[in-house]
């Protein structure tokens, strides 16, 4: 299965960014939601640690040079983070976030795909 995933770096990055953004959201829920106490809070921290480990694993499975994969990763992360932010916290991105995000996506594409002569 891992070999099959390695043939699709974009899928690996999508999985990694989804795991990272979800793990961060679960940490935030565990820290700031007063309804999550005791064993439930500990369980949320363990869940978030597992999600964040998965992010590191899938990111590093991508068969791309790390200096180039990071551009595509950051662009993908921005998009996934906005989706996760809306799903977990019901917060839509503002216009400055969308404009700044467009710059992040363009910059990520340049880092990943621009091959200097």
Topology:
Elements (H helix, E strand, L loop, with lengths): L1 H5 L2 H24 L5 H24 L4 H24 L5 H19 L4
Describe this structure in words.
By secondary structure, this protein is mainly alpha-helical. It has one domain. Helices cover 82% and strands 0% of the residues. It contains 5 helices and no strands. Helix 4 runs antiparallel to helix 5. The N and C termini lie far apart (36 Å). The mean pLDDT is 89.
**How much strand content do the residues show?**
under 5%
Q: What order do the helices and strands follow? A: HHHHH
SS field, number of helical segments: 5
**How confident is the prediction overall: mean pLDDT?**
89
**How many angstroms does the end-to-end distance come to?**
36 Å
Helical/strand content category:
mainly alpha
Broad shape: flat
Helix fraction? over 70%
Q: Number of domains in the coordinates?
A: 1
Question: Radius of gyration, rounded?
Answer: 16 Å
Poorly predicted segments: none
Largest sheet: none
